[in-house]
Design a protein that fits this description.
The structure holds 2 protein chains of 2 kinds.
Chain A lengths: L1 E10 L2 E11 L4 E5 L6 H9 L5 E9 L2 E2 L5 H6 L2 E4 L6 E5 H15 L7 H14 L4 H5 L1 E2 L5 H15 L3 E5 L7 H13 L6 E6 L3 H5 L4 E6 L2 E6 L1 H10 L1 H8 L2
Parallel strand pairs in A: 3-10, 3-11, 6-9, 9-10
Antiparallel strand pairs in A: 1-2, 1-4, 4-5, 7-8, 11-12
Helix pairs in contact in A: 4-6, 6-7
Chain B lengths: L5 H7 L9 H17 L14 H5 L11 E3 L8 E4 H7 L16 H9 L4 E5 L9 E6 L4 E3 L2 E6 L4 E9 L5 E11 L4 E8 L4 E10 L4 E9 L3 E10 L5 E10 L4 E10 L5 E10 L4 E10 L6 E11 L5 E10 L4 E10 L3 H9 L4 H17 L5 H12 L5 H7 L1
Helix pairs in contact in B: 2-5, 6-7, 7-8
The chains are: A alpha/beta, B alpha/beta.
Chain lengths: 250, 402
């Protein structure tokens, strides 16, 4: 589904990603672990199409198409979803109505009719229940006055509403206590399926106790230095990133 | 009267007025004197520095026939709305000493005092609380000058919501309005003003507030060849509170210019101003607000904020919130910002699938809608949102999702 080859990315003239190669098939959950500053969020933003990230080399192919040529909204319409590490508050834009506009824009792109208000509300109720997002939060302004946990649950609620093919979750665990983490992880797990790929970005192994990945990659200094199964995450937790770093840069 | 320039108009103002009660003749005479002495403002007049006042002054100064000032809503029980002309004829002493309570006006407001022929007096007696808003429409249908004049009196503990709309597609007309609101002790007045007309407008709103009164003003200006509005409140009694809000949107070659002035003359009063604007195209928007805290106005709390979005390189925004404080025990703040749409917010919306232009429109709408959201009366909010939606790209889609 997603094929990243030798991806090099610069931000403000500084090279952040130095040759990432990654292949994620439908149905798989990949985790990317790495210390702060290793380029994890840069990878997430490049895949979602944020401005200010210059691809200097390499390619990203998504469902056989050049992902890097698409506008962010086209990527979303084609099924790419980014769960933000720091979801921004948008006062004055209602969470639920913005999501309705988003869902219907995506449906239009896919040649589907817009959902009517009743079907939409039904769907919203169901998906909000998945992450225990209170009804009144769906109606408030986007992330405005939400707690850290509510923001992350809101991200997963939106993901559930939009039913992406490729979900990129950028440090969804950051700022969550263990109960909130479990709720969010359950929400994510409910969305796992043979048609859907996920890229879970995290600093800590903790999240991967609840969202068990098929493949774990270790990203250090803009390069994937190790790839393994879920046990690699456990090893990292035990030994720390410095061990891995020392192993590759003696 | 034939078409004339303001200069000849001012020269032709009589030194003594013949018609109406004596107090009104004096009032008009003083306004005429002020005009003869000071004339109309020019670019060198500080308070008019950013207003392209020439185009107002060069407007055809012939009266528009029949000032179309009308109450469009059914009058709620307890409220009276009478024609000023009728009141001045039938009870000539009734309004003696009550008009121009802020002092002898100058510039365009003086012209209104000298020349208004009719208007409305809206009165809510003591103790009368009215839920249903009173709505006045100024429909500007012709070229020429009109002088709408509205006088509102809210008695002790009275409550009123007044909605004024200024509509009309006539370019070349000039509306020179004066609205005075005398707000009694413990009274609450909400005043909404919607500017939707394409022509030129100069307006003055003067408010006088007795102790413990609350006045809330919300001004929505949706373009306009030239608009200059001054909203002034005198906090005259202890514990009075005023909230002056505004939202403006300029595009094309619009020029809109909002001035506010709050005079804290009594202690323990609060004032809060929040104006937000968006300028695109070659439009110009001006905000100039002043809070004056007089010597005896201890325990004043005054806040002033003006936030702007500048959406094109060719648009202009001038903002000048300022304070003059002569008391020592006060809490005051003021601030202004001019910026672009927030990139993080735009990207968030687009990353969810919302096309860039719709995302722009949604954020633009939300920025101004936050002012409308502060209006207490739901049907009025709806009406104001509709007016805004009509001016925003993708309005239909935004209506669909809000």
């Amino acid at each position: 589904m997603l094929k990243i080859e030798d991806l090099h990315v610069e931000v403000d003239g500084k090279t952040i990603l130095k040759g990432i190669t990654l292949d994620i098939a439908a149905g798989e959950v990949h985790a990317i672990m790495g210390p702060n500053g290793s380029g994890k969020s840069t990878l997430a933003y490049v895949l979602a199409g944020r401005e200010g990230y210059e691809v200097t080399k390499g390619s990203v192919t998504y469902k056989g198409q050049n992902l890097l040529e698409m506008e962010p909204e086209i990527r979303a319409a084609e099924g790419v979803f980014l769960g933000f590490q720091y979801p921004v508050a948008i006062p004055g834009v209602s969470n639920i109505y913005f999501l309705k506009a988003a869902l219907n824009a995506i449906r239009k792109h896919r040649g589907q009719d817009p959902l009517d208000a009743i079907d939409f509300m039904k769907l919203s109720k169901e998906k909000a229940g998945l992450v225990q997002l209170p009804d009144q939060l769906t109606k408030r302004s986007v992330n405005d006055g939400f707690s850290g946990g509510e923001k992350k649950r809101n991200e997963i609620y939106q993901m559930a509403m939009l039913e992406p093919s490729l979900a990129i979750l950028d440090e969804t665990d950051s700022g969550l206590d263990i109960d909130a983490l479990k709720v969010v992880a359950e929400g994510v797990n409910a969305l796992r399926g043979p048609e859907r790929a996920m890229l879970v970005i995290t600093h800590y192994q903790r999240l991967l106790d609840y969202i068990v990945p098929d493949v774990v990659h270790v990203l250090i200094d803009g390069r994937i230095v190790r790839t393994g199964d879920k046990n690699l995450a456990k090893q990292l937790e035990r030994d720390g990133y410095s061990e891995v770093r020392d192993a590759i840069q003696p | 009267m034939t078409d004339s320039s303001p200069k000849t108009l001012i020269q032709s103002l009589p030194s003594s007025f013949e018609a109406g009660p004596e107090w009104l003749r004096l009032l008009r005479g003083r306004a005429a004197d002020a005009l003869r002495a000071g004339g109309l403002p020019t670019k060198k007049t500080e308070a008019w520095r950013f207003t392209p006042v020439r185009s107002v002054v060069e407007a055809v100064f012939s009266p528009a026939e029949g000032d179309a000032l009308s109450v469009v809503s059914a009058l709620p029980e307890g409220v009276t709305a009478r024609s000023l002309r009728e009141v001045l004829e039938s009870e000539p002493g009734l309004l003696d000493g009550r008009l121009d309570f802020a002092g002898t006006p100058e510039h365009f407001a003086a012209l209104n005092t000298a020349l208004f022929t009719d208007g409305l007096w809206i009165d809510v007696p003591d103790g009368t609380a009215v839920d249903t808003p009173v709505e006045i429409t100024h429909a500007i249908g012709r070229a020429g000058v009109s002088y709408p004049r509205v006088f509102v009196t809210a008695g002790e503990s009275a409550e009123l919501t007044l909605i004024e709309t200024y509509q009309g597609e006539t370019v070349g007309g000039l509306t020179n309005s004066v609205v005075e609101l005398d707000v009694g002790r413990n009274a609450k007045v909400s005043h909404v003003r919607i500017h939707e007309n394409a022509g030129m407008q100069v307006g003055r709103v003067d408010v006088r507030q007795a102790a413990d009164s609350v006045y809330r003003s919300t001004v929505i200006t949706l373009g306009g060849a030239l608009l200059r509005l001054d909203v002034r409140s005198l906090l005259d009694g202890k514990g009075a509170e005023c909230q002056l809000d505004g939202a403006y949107l300029v595009e094309g070659e619009d020029h809109v210019d909002h001035h506010t002035r709050v005079d804290h003359r009594a202690p323990h009063c609060r004032s809060n101003q929040t104006y937000r604007g968006i300028a695109s195209g070659k439009g110009t928007a001006v905000f100039d607000g002043i809070v004056i805290v007089h010597r005896d106005a201890q325990k004043t709390e005054a806040h002033q904020e003006n936030r702007n979005l500048l959406l094109s390189d060719t648009a202009t925004i001038h903002t000048k919130p300022h304070l003059e404080i002569d008391a020592d025990d006060v809490v005051c703040s003021h601030g202004a910002t001019v910026g672009a749409l927030d990139e993080d917010q735009l990207f968030y919306l687009r990353a969810r699938g919302i096309p860039a232009d719709l995302a722009h429109a949604m954020l633009t709408y939300a920025f101004l809608e936050s002012i409308i959201d502060r209006v207490g009366h739901e049907p009025t909010r709806t009406r104001m949102r509709e007016a805004l939606i009509a001016r925003i790209p993708h309005g239909d889609e935004i209506r669909e999702v809000t």
